[in-house]
Write a structure and sequence with these properties.
A hairpin with a 5-residue loop joins strand 2 and strand 3. The protein starts with 7 loop residues before the first strand and ends in a 15-residue tail after the last strand. It has two domains: 134 residues, Electron Transport, Fmn-binding Protein, Chain A (Pnp Oxidase, Chain A, Roll); 28 residues, no CATH class. Helix content is 28%, strand content 30%. By secondary structure, the protein is of the alpha+beta class. The longest helix is centred in the C-terminal third of the chain and has 15 residues. Strands 1, 2, 3, 4, 5, 6, 7 and 8 form an eight-stranded antiparallel beta sheet that branches.
């Protein structure tokens, strides 16, 4: 359950964010039961996320078939510049401006999405190729004429996984041009 419901964004916002960011961080438990997170290049098709991996390593050992994972996506993040230097200097003379400092100066604007779902190894070669094609179309679209040769050369050394998205949430803190926080999903 999201604590700051006033910053919650729609599932459509979350999907758009997932599709636009360059990576997500997959979080899971390793084989010792310790938290483990790894950044991945992910692509989405409908309610499925795909990623690839080597066939061995800590991540592969941690990815238990059907286990629940969490993937975090972070979009644009920046410190807002809502006040000029004179306005900031004026804060020093007005103790009552302390809360404004906390909420509008010592803060960040951000957008993020969280996905929880179950992970599965893709075992069907046609589905592996489709997933790799989607990944390559997202990250290397200008090189797609070389895809067939690359997949023939590398698929045997590649593991492909999918995550069936079961829960998706998004959150954002952003200020409008008047310096007011846009809450409750407001986009303008």
């Amino acid at each position: 359950m999201m604590r700051r419901k006033d910053r919650e964004m729609s599932p459509e916002f979350a999907l758009q964010l997932i599709d636009s960011v360059p990576y997500g961080v997959l979080s899971m438990l390793d084989k010792e039961g310790e938290p483990y997170g790894v950044p991945l290049s992910l692509v989405r098709k409908e309610d499925i996320l795909y990623f690839h991996s080597a066939k061995a390593g800590k991540k592969v050992e941690a990815l238990k078939e059907g286990s629940t994972v969490c993937i975090t996506f972070v979009g644009e993040t920046q410190v807002p510049q809502l006040f000029d230097e004179k306005e900031l200097a004026d804060f020093l003379t007005k103790e009552e401006k302390g809360q404004t400092l906390i909420s509008k100066v010592f803060t960040t604007e951000f957008e993020s999405a969280l996905v929880q779902g179950t992970v599965h190894k893709v075992t069907s070669e046609p589905q592996q190729i489709e997933a790799m094609r989607l990944i390559c179309e997202k990250y290397t679209p200008s090189k797609m004429k070389l895809f067939d040769l690359a997949i023939r050369s590398g698929l045997s050394r590649t593991a492909v996984y999918c995550v069936k998205m079961q829960q998706i949430t998004a959150k954002r803190k952003k200020f409008d041009r008047n310096g007011e926080e846009m809450k409750w999903g407001r986009t303008e």
